[in-house]
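idk why but the lab printer keeps eating my pages so im just putting this in chat instead. protein + N,N,N-trimethyl-histidine:
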Amino acid sequence: MISSSNTEAREFARAAFLGLSDHPRWLPCRYLYDAEGSRLFERITETPEYYLTRTELSLLDGSTDAIAQITGDATLVELGAGSARKTERILSAYTHGYGAARYVPVDVSGDALAATTSALAGRYPTLAVRGVHGSYESVFPLLPSLSPLVLLFLGSTIGNLNQTEADVFWSNVRCALSPDDFMLLGVDLVKDAATIDRAYNDAAGWSAAFTKNIFARMNRELGSKIDLGGIDHEAAYRPEWQRVEIFARMTRRQEVHLAPLGRTITLEPGERVMTEISRKFELADLRDYLHLFEMETLQTFSDPAQSYALLLLRPRQS
Ligand code: AVJ
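predcted complex ->
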């Protein structure tokens, strides 16, 4: 019998093989988030350079009561289990406003789901939590039965999707939402390149460790035998494409073994593997774009510097 971890390793190996044999070479960014990757990302959010999480938290502080008023009592469905800190702001508004709350975190990482669930259980006795272990897409078919709901997609995770992936995502969201549902979207905004560059190149080196972890994970799960000392983190904002591109650059030759497939890929010195993109948004363009998918922006919450925004969306009423 094939165990499930074996199946997962084969799937990871296949995705790695396909991405690494493409040009430019790349790896799917969801594999950045195993238990170690989630821990490293938490460290990034605590660095002085990474303004996103801090700004989003303070925007949530100033807006969740108003949001809860507008949406009324609703089930909170969160794509990406997120940090408990962030979720607590929102849950507090709904438990104070409506006495009880229902929360459905969705995450590909079972570890992240378990951590979120246990962190919340003690603090919110009237909260009903039902985690969904799977990709974002896997929850869309469940949404009609959870309505009325607020779909939470925070942290500017939407920025990890390229245009094509985002188009599919928004079509699916629009189809899955009922007329009385809402969505709360967190997005990082276009700003000066230096500020963005610093956020993805923190001085303490957590960003670099996060990028390298996907290769460490390949060593752990796929027997890849990658020399982690021969990898440099390279992240830069490209203003013309309004996105950060994050690469691992090989400083020496690497034979990458993919044991579950019995295959090896050779990376030459200087070759780069893209591990992530992080798009930044202009508010007016984003609202226009969402309109194409019949999503209407009810309210926008932003900081005085317009560095980050929360958008309260709903399906356009016809
Ligand atoms: C969690 C996807 C929003 O793009 O800013 C941070 C991930 N990668 N530093 C981002 C990330 C490197 C982060 N998101």
